[in-house]
Amino acid sequence: MKQTSQHFTQNVKAALADPTLKIALNRTTGLLQRRRAQVIEEFAEYGAARAAAEKIKDHTLDNLGHYLEQFEANAAAAGATVHWARTPKEATDIVADICKAEGARTATRVKSMLGEEIGIPEALARAGVERIETDLAEHIIQLAEDPPSHIVMPAMHKTHEQVADLFREKHKVPSNSDEIAALVESARRELRPKFLDADVGISGANFLIADTGSIVTVTNEGNAELTVTPPKTHIVTVGIEKIVPSMEHCAVFLRLLSRAAIGAEITQYTTFYNGPKRTGDADGPENMHIVLVDNHRTEMLSDFLRPMLRCIRCGACMNHCPVYAAVGGHAYGAVYPGPMGSVLTPAMAGLKNSKDLPNACTLNGRCKEVCPVNIPLTDMLRSLRARQFDGKLVTPVTRSALVVWGWLVRRPGLYHLSTALAVLAMRIWSMNRGRIRRFPMAGGWTGSRDLPQPGRGTFMQQYGRRKQK
Amino acid sequence: MANPDKSKPRVGFFVTCVVDAMRPNIGFASLKVLEQAGCEVEVPRAQTCCGQAAFNSGDDASTREIAKQVITAFEPYDYVVVPSGSCASMIRSHYGELFAGDAEWEARQRAVSEKTWEVLSFLSDIMNYRPEGVYYDGVATYHDSCSGLRDLGVYEQPRAMLSAVEGLRLTPLTGNDECCGFGGTFCVKYPDISNAIVTDKAEKIAATGADTLLGGDMGCLMNMAGKLSRQGSEVKAYHTIEVLAGMAEGPAICKGEEMG
Amino acid sequence: MSDARNAILQNIRTANGALPPASEIEAAAAALIENPGDLRPSFSDQDNRSRFVEKATSERVTATVSEVAHLRDVPEAVKAYLAQASVPLQVALQPRGALTELNWDGIKTHSAPSPNEPAAVSIADLAVAETGSVVFLSAPDAPVLMNFLPLHHIVVVSAELIHRHLEDVFAIVGKAQQDQPRNLSIVTGTSGTADIEAKNIRGAHGPRFMHLIICQKVT
What is the pLDDT averaged over residues C153-174? Predict the structure, then answer.
């Protein structure tokens, strides 16, 4: 997708001016929060599981080379071909080459954010391969030609009324009804034959299991198995941080992932895949390719962003983010929106191209609180601000204001005098109405809310007067 | 510094830059209740700001210098008490990030961080304070400011103390633990997003039917009261400590006062 | 390809430093899940079967359940289910002797599921009490699509193969690479989606209905 994170403020304006977007977001975020809260309340061992998940991920990252090599050997033993790619280009070239070698005309695809990150849709288009998105949300945004706006529910920005209009325009046998169940049925009718006829099935992986060489997909729709079983070739593109030591370790994450993402104890379909079709199998792909992708992950490994590699892409952080709820996912202008995206995008696309993202956060900390692997998102966003400040990526005005403020607060006498004068000025300006509607240079505040009228002098002044009495 | 009564804990009161300038009443209410609770309270002159604005803007060098000033000013006390969850959390939870590798300052910082408290949790958890004979006539709803709630665990303490205030009824706020959109410099850097968030918050406050909004952070209260005032709402916003001190008789935040 | 591999592994080495011996890494990994009981829901007041039924029929999973004493009673249970669901008496059968050898008089059976198969019958290899899930291990007599194409998925579950937790199922399958089936699918209810306004809808791509026939004995 096209990166527009450098135009964050324009994107925000457009998002806030879109009343339908607000309706779509209001209909979903509250529901997702309530479902998650309930299923976690029922899980008495949640705290211990979360702490263990954090430790397992840290252990795996500490020994990442060992586990990747172990995975590679086991996946090869199962009959899969393992590829390595440093960059999105290397990864998509591998995918395109496989498609070409297979003479593929069509490819079905299971939603994978890594696939979006490396640009699989664009790469397939360049290779002349027709792409069929099988995840319902991805199907919707493919028809609408929209980028994804959420990592678990990429069509969260659409209301069901908008989806109904879209399906009426694009589906062969659309539904007459706007009911969500009828829309789902319409997509089922449209997609079912395409599943079975594709030449290549492309998936991501939620987990890689080092000691068995398995790749794991987790879906509610069952579209992963339907996508990768019928075609002759199954291609997996996956980030190297998705690895866990064993299936038992994976169980800890399966319990957390679906609870955090959708408020369910487990998703409907969890499948471990081990290589291609075997002798006597009635179905299954003849070839299985696994592309292990770096794309800045090894850089993050040697950086303060390392804990971000624990992320299991549940989306809970964005479901609980007030900024995301206000502007939606597209405003972030990148594949990964919300708090986790505001950390990942600077790491992947450069801080210069995403200057606003670490700043457009109130640091309220709810994202970290709901994170199933305890990623210190707010701390990392703040550290990215420090990196911006040190790298002179803040505007000269902001920088000077900070420097002047920093200078003033270190001179208490002068500081108290200045604040006393400022307070006096505000008091006069307020004309004793209790609140201030407009104030010079405070338009950011007073544009949408009042400022209170300050008291009779600062606290320090009044306290000084009382002490003298 | 004299300590006339050695049995009383000596509290250094850190008023915070926002309360100092915008709402001294919160400071005086804190002093009153802290003294009622049995503390010996002093207000060091050398205090200004905790450095949070610089820290959250990424200016770590300035923050470090500001933090040193705060540490030096408050080292002599048994406790540092702050009428704000976010400023208390800055000193208690974040100063530690500034002095890694500097053994001397790390030790001094840790000592001050560990004895720093947000005023409501200090009164409840350390001083076991419960108000007596305090009256407030109204139905209030409560916003839990993020830093106090998540960094410091301030949730039950204000509710427990407010339950002892006569005439006051608390009614729950939907989304009480959701950010109000203040976020320090966030609200002026991204005023449109901040406005969208605080507009939602104001709607939820209005939906409670309460006549009073209470909280523990002047920044958030100023944001919500500022929005409510702009909308013409009658809801009165006070810091919890003003109610506990029986000092919520004057004009609420953003409400007019008698000419003095 | 090998360039990329070497570069990635080299970057990891640079970031992580030298690794301890493999045996130490394995021991450390094992220690992290030493007490799995602390990390998963406990349901000490319930036996495996009652927990399984409770979860499988819960509002979130939406399966229906009937019970039979012997495997030979399965065709009657299938007939009863199809009749009450108003589905023609015709099913795709997993090509597994234990199923195909039963007396299916009165129901038309076939082995390869069609793209729009109305109903299919599978035997679950294992089941998980914790989550109300059934587990399918792919094999020549257990094709994968059998579990994904039908609208009504009827699954025979042997009561004695309902295990307590996910980890118990993994232990039975085996830990090593060569123990793994091509596909190990943990299926919990039916194909669902929450992709439009987060509303849960059943029958997205795969089955819309799951009926579990719990069989006392599969002998």
Answer: 97
